[in-house]
Amino acid sequence: MRISAAHTKGGIDEARGAAEAVLARLYAFDAGPVLFKPTLTGGPQAFCTTRGGALSYFVGHDPKFPGDSGFALKGWTDVQIQNAVIHIEGDTALTMGDVLITDASGAVTTVDKTWGFSRDAQGDLRIVLHHSSLPFAVE
Question: Residue 130 pLDDT more than 80?
Answer without folding.
Answer: yes
